[in-house]
User: What shape does this take?
Amino acid sequence: MAADSLERRLRAAIRTIPDFPRPGIQFKDITTVLAEPALFHETLNALAEWAGERSPDKVVGVDARGFLFAAPVADRLGVGLVPVRKPGKLPFTTLQQSYDLEYGTNVLEVHSDAVGNGERVVVVDDLLATGGTVAAAARLVGALGGEMIGAAFVIELGFLGGRSQLDGYECYSLVNFD
Assistant: This one.
């Protein structure tokens, strides 16, 4: 199906939950996409096609909803998956990076051996909001000697200006809520 058809179908499927997880937040719920096998499959194919054109060595998935999209994309591309998690969830030596959220701050961790020197990395996540999460993941990749070559998202909340945090990185989103 055409990209505009996928965008239209995603826009129709994604539900907005007001005041979650905090008052004033308009949460974009992707469980409706996951529940529709054909739409989920098409979404994964679109993300994998974009990522594959960049020839990554690894795909980074960000805790937690990003794992749902990054793992199948890595599988489709035949490359490694790097989980970037919240603190205390990874069993090996880690590097940490703090970042700002739309509604607070948090920390991400990655295994210290997850990305090799010079490896090309694409981040795949469900949502681009303020850009803080992906910018933190990019800093972790760089600290490990890798090169972030782009980031792909199912949803972009364009009105939050997240791309400005990712200046210098190519970004791709399937649907933008301005």
